[in-house]
Amino acid sequence: MSKIPVWIDCDTGVDDAAALLTANQLDNVQIVGLSTVAGNVPLDKTTVNTLKICDLMKKDYPVYMGADRPWIRPYVDASDVHGNDGLGGAPLPAPSRKPENKKAWDALYEEAVRQDGELVLVAIGPLTNVATALTLHPDLKDYLKKILIMGGAAVGGNRTASAEFNIYVDPDAAQTVFRCGKQITMFGLDVTQKAYVTAEEMDRIAEKVTPVTTFFKESMAPRMPFYEDLGIVGVCLHDVCPMLYLKYPEIFELEEAGVYVETQAELTLGKTVTDLFSDHQFEKKNAMVALRVDREAFFRHFSDALQSY
Ligand code: RIB
Ligand code: CA
Predict the structure, then answer these.
(1) Would you state the pLDDT for residue 80?
(2) Of all atoms in ligand 1, which is nearest to the CA of residue 159?
(3) Count of CB atoms within 10 A of residue 23's CB?
(4) Distance CA 76, CA 65 (A)
(5) Which of 53, 131, 170, 253 could form a disulfide with 126 if both were Cys (CB 3.0 to 4.6 A apart)?
(6) pLDDT at 83
């Protein structure tokens, strides 16, 4: 079977780590590059975390550093959710290697050209690197087969009442991505807040004791109270959603929509405005928006991936 070449742009926090561990085990995926961006925690920490997870996977995927701040807005982090180190304090050895010397946006472009139109880009953090790459290299979009993102929400928000964190951190970059002319496959809170793993399911995964399952439980379990306070009965594996879509698209339900980002207002800054539930329709349907997931299947495939190490 020919594998899908995949580039992952991440702000490695606890669910990015789970997403990397998942993608690495999908037999139809070949990770060809990783890039890091300021998001959950600052760039130096998201980079160290990504390198640590590569060591945990025993892989030496090239890691390229990108933006240490958003395009225009002041940088805000999510250390309140992911812990000061970004991995929930779960103990991992210091990384065995350094990131590459090339900037993320240039490395991504060069790999997209090398893959000659087959590269799938999965962005699971703020979209600063992706927007920078699309701006510096206007033909990048022609070399990308697909752009999948974890970000946004047709309804609600988790950083403000109306904005999801990844989009809120850099709404201007996000707007550039949604307007780039290539359809975006968007895994927003509408679906990712349904993609949760309960405490009992976490224990079940960790019953097979390996460094990977131990790390997963140690990094995720402390997040439970945060989600319980939100009335969600498990920890949301936001960033795992686009990864499992790569192999199991059938467990997700998506709808075509127009999606644009609020970059000026105060109350709704970073909102992904969609026409899904509106009589007024945007002219251009620039996104496929994931709305539902078969959670049992999601958990089964995720658990299989983590227990396959
Ligand atoms: O809103 C959830 C998103 O923000 C996830 O990507 C999580 O890792 C954080 O970056
Ligand atoms: Ca993330």
Answers:
(1) 84
(2) 1
(3) 25
(4) 18
(5) 170
(6) 87
Establish whether residue 40 lines the binding site of ligand 1, counting it when its CB lies within 6 angstroms of any ligand atom.
yes
Mutation to probe ligand 1, out of 9, 36, 40 (largest number of atoms < 8 A from CB): 40
Alpha-carbon span 304 to 309, nearest angstrom: 9
pLDDT at position 227? 87
Bridge partners for 30 per DSSP: 5
Ligand 1 neighbour 168 (Cβ under 6 A): no
Q: Record the tokens describing residue 214, joined without a space.
A: 């131990």
Is any ligand 1 atom within 6 A of the Cβ of residue 165? yes
Residues 231-247 have pLDDT tens digits of: 889 999 999 999 999 99
Is residue 238 annotated as a catalytic residue, yes or no?
yes
In order, the DSSP letters of the chain are -PPEEEEEEE--SHHHHHHHHHHTT-TTEEEEEEEE-SSSS-HHHHHHHHHHHHHHHT----EEE--SS-SSSPP---HHHH-TTSSTT---PPPSS---SS-HHHHHHHHHHHTTT-EEEEE-S-SHHHHHHHHHSTTHHHHEEEEEEE---SS--SSSSS--HHHHH-HHHHHHHHTSSS-EEEE-HHHHTT-EE-HHHHHHHHTS--HHHHHHHHHHGGGHHHHHHTT-SSEE-TTHHHHHHHH-GGGEEEEEE-EEE--S-STTTT-EEESTT-SS--SS--EEEEEEE-HHHHHHHHHHHHHT-
Convert the pLDDT of each residue in 11-21 to its tens digit. 999 999 999 99
CB distance 63 to ligand 1 below 6 Å? no
> What mean pLDDT is predicted for residues 132-160?
98
Look at residues 133, 123, 135, 143 and name the one whose alpha carbon lies nearest to residue 184. Answer: 123
Calpha distance 188→195 (Å, rounded): 11
Q: Does the structural domain 4-307 have CATH classification 3.40.50.1820?
A: no
